[in-house]
Amino acid sequence: MASRSVVLTASGISKTFGEVPIVSDFSLTVHAGDAVALTGRNGAGKSTILRMLIGAQKPDTGRVEFEGIRMSETNPEIRRGMASVIDDLDFFPDLSVVEHLDLMARAHGVPEPDAHVDAVLAEVQLVPQSGQLPGTLSSGQRRRLALATAFVRPRRLLVLDEPEQRLDVEGVAWLADRLVEERKRGLAIIMASHEPHLVDAVATRRIHVVGPEPAGVAAEAPGAGEADA
Amino acid sequence: MSKKQRKRSASTVAEAAPVATEPEETVADHAGRDWNFAFLPDAEPEWVDEAALHGLMKDWRHGRATRTIGQVLSDAYFAVFTIVLLGAMIVNAIIGSQHAAASCTTADCAVGRTLIPWGVYFALCALTLGVARLFGPVLASAAEGFWLMEAPIGRARLLRPRLWGVIVLAGLLTAALQAVVAALAGEPGHLVAAFAAATGLSCAGLMAWAAAAQSGDRRRPLALVRAVAALGAVVALTAMVAVSAGWVAAGRFAVPDAAVWVLAGAGALLALGCGTLAHRRLDVIPRARLTSGGSLVSSMQGAMFALDFGLARDILVEREAAARGHVRPTRGRGTEVFALVWRDVQRLARFPRPLFGVLGAALVPYALDAIGLGLASPLLGAIALMVALIPLFGALRVLSRTSGLARTLPFSTRQIRLATSVVPALLAAVWCALVTPSMAGILGGVARAPLEASLAALATAAAGLLGAMRWQTARPVDFQVPMLATSSGAVPPTLIFNLLRGFDMVALVTAPLLLGVAPVWAVALAAVVAGFLTAGINTAEMTEEAAEQRAALEEERNRAKGKASRPAARPGGGPAGSTPRPRPTGATAAGQRRATARRK
């Protein structure tokens, strides 16, 4: 484990909304092949932590680094290595499903993008919707498209915020298998989830985030998936 | 039914409602509270009619009024004062135009001026049909759709006032607008009245036609007539330029005054006929069609409260895309940034409508020259180009409004802005070439040497391009900053500036041309503005970095002071906001994390 490279480090990050501290002095180190699951009740601060880790929100204090580079969501190097699916993902209203994936693959310089896009499209079961515009997709289909945008491109870190949302039972099972496969290939994963089966299957480390409760303490435990790592 | 009767009816409903009794079960934790409501006991439902429900809704709304009569009167005073002031300005401008028209004695000049109201007539007809198709035109709110449309009541009775309301409103607004334009164009009084009547009645008729077609969702004929009307506006504008330039004999476009009154009569017949038809079909308009317009109105209201025209346009674009639903997918081309550029080319091939906008905008400088406003040609021409180019920056808008999609692409903000500007810039270059003769003053505008005219056209095109880019990338109003106290309540300082976005760039770049300074300065200014706009400077990030550096410096100073006074300083004792000590690993730090918030 010691030889694995450090992908992301967060050192003492904190966030306060108004006068309410949401995250206080949070630190985390993620290596290649780690799958860290953040669990905890609604409002505990999981999404805020994720947003700070990917640079979508600036921490009030502390520092986040991706492969030794100070986190900035506009840095092209970081954009090249980190894929994220959180709640702010937008789509072009005039590009179809397959065109989104095609653009993503080509922008990242994927060799033979057509074949790769077709494979990912089939995997997320959006082949019948390939010509549809995003505005007409169901919420579950939009979720699949969002996940596909992360899987169609090269990545060294994958950050997911409740990826199981809107997915059917079959979809959650597929996602778990896919993430386990990704992790075994050496991808670092950080995800927030309420789905115990997904967490059990994927996570090598589990961090239970306790919300803004007085004297709330977050605990970390090894995940069931650690044995596979 | 009179107001009093309706009120009585509403109160009857209230009285007839079963008297609330004590809830059967109370929750122990909240037993002491005055709940103000209770579960209804088993009782036979009362039969009410639509008027009673309507009265009850009205009663609820009035009961929730948040403004006093004094505040309303104060606002009314401001409104009246503004109307009088603006009215006086318009009347003054009309009188000036009428004096100027007296010197317009040649046939070319007279016919050229007469074509302006014709252009406005067709443009307003196209606009009316566009708005009617977008909103319904008969609409109902989501609440009405849920609560009233499902009830066993006649919808027609509720919708009737709305139908006739939109028809009359369309007629009055377009007539007033046309009257002002015709008067400003120097038309005599009787023609001003004729054009106002023809435009008002025609637009009212088209609105009624759209309402009649709403029940069957027959959109194709409406779209066709709208396209013809838009084409008519372009033809009128082109004819005006051609006549003024002397390319076409004025007699070709001389239309007898009686034709205007014939149009007014036809419009009146259309309004009455289609209005009656729409009236009869009100009961069969699908609920989805009614509430769709209502939800659009609420979305647009939300955007307008923030004066966020970008958001308003996003709503319309999303709606149009959802209505289209499906496209024939095309493979991209190239890799890296070129893939983004090529997608814009494919977009234009798929949706070529903006192309016509750019070509139409190229007529504006010539038209301005033709009516003697050549001096304002750079400013107004750039604004016309800006409006035409905004739809072509759709990709930039999506990549700028939230960071989510931009984060997935491996490009810097500058690369994204440059890549998404390539296609609009090419079209702006075409526009520049098309308007160069106008900038040389071939139609009597400001006369410039060929090189100067080319530079002036270049600066004007750049102003339009940069204005469109600024319009699409400007951040929405920030409601989290300290507000300004005004008589209209708390207002964020950036709210007013939001109105000016895009126009500020146009004004800045074209200012040297308006002031008579050499055009090369306008081009230089455009280059500087382009540098700033494409850089995508993240002020928040810069501010944060500066704050972090200040904090580090402060910490260093404190440490030095501590060393001077006490040999052993407390570690990590920096001031608030300083960078805390880094935690070594997640495993060791996890047990020390603590969330200390207090939830209200």
Strand arrangement, largest sheet of chain A?
A: 6-7-8-3-9-11
Structural class of chain B: mainly alpha
Which outline of chain B best applies? Answer: globular
Largest beta-sheet details of chain B: 2 strands, antiparallel
> Which band does the percent of strand residues of chain A land in?
25-35%
CATH architecture of the domain at 6-89 and 155-228 in chain A: 3-Layer(aba) Sandwich
Number of strands of chain B: 3
What is the overall number of helices of chain A? 7
User: What do the pLDDT scores of chain B average to?
Assistant: 79
N-C termini distance of chain A: 9 Å
Low-confidence stretches of chain A: none
Low-pLDDT sequence parts of chain B: 6-27, 566-600
Q: Report the major sheet of chain A.
A: 6 strands, mixed
- Derived structural class of chain A: alpha/beta
Give the oligomer, counting copies of the same chain as homo and different chains as hetero: heterodimer
Question: Which sequence of SSEs, written as H and E, runs from N to C of chain A?
Answer: EEEHEEHEHHHEHEHEEE
Organism (chain A): Propioniciclava soli
Pfam family, one (chain A): ABC_tran
Keywords (chain A): ATP-binding, Nucleotide-binding, Transport
Protein name (chain A): ABC transporter ATP-binding protein
Describe this structure in words.
Chain A: InterPro entries: AAA+_ATPase, ABC_transporter-like_ATP-bd, ABC_transporter-like_CS, P-loop_NTPase. Chain A: One of its GO terms (molecular function) is ATP binding. Chain A: It holds the Pfam family ABC_tran. The complex is a heterodimer of chains A (229) and B (600). Chain A is of the alpha/beta class and 229 residues long. Chain A has helices at 46-53, 76-81, 97-107, 113-123, 139-151, 169-184, 196-202, and strands spanning 6-17, 20-31, 35-39, 61-66, 69-70, 82-85, 157-161, 188-192, 205-208, 216-217, 219-222. In chain A, strands 6-7-8-3-9-11 form a six-stranded mixed beta sheet, sandwiched between helices. In chain A, strands 2-1-4-5 form a four-stranded antiparallel beta sheet, covered by helices on one side. In chain A, helix 3 packs across helix 4 (113-123). The model of chain A has no long low-confidence stretch (mean pLDDT 87). With 600 residues, chain B is mainly alpha-helical. Among the domains of chain B are: 104-305, no CATH class; 337-478 and 490-543. Chain B has 24 helices and three strands. A two-stranded antiparallel ribbon of chain B has the order 1-2. The longest helix of chain B is centred in the N-terminal third of the chain and has 34 residues, at 69-102. In chain B, 35% of the residues are buried. Residues 6-27 and 566-600 of chain B have low confidence and may be disordered. Classes of the chains: A alpha/beta (229), B mainly alpha (600). The interface between A and B is large, with 82 and 69 residues. Strand 10 (216-217) of chain A pairs antiparallel with strand 3 of chain B, so a sheet runs across the interface.
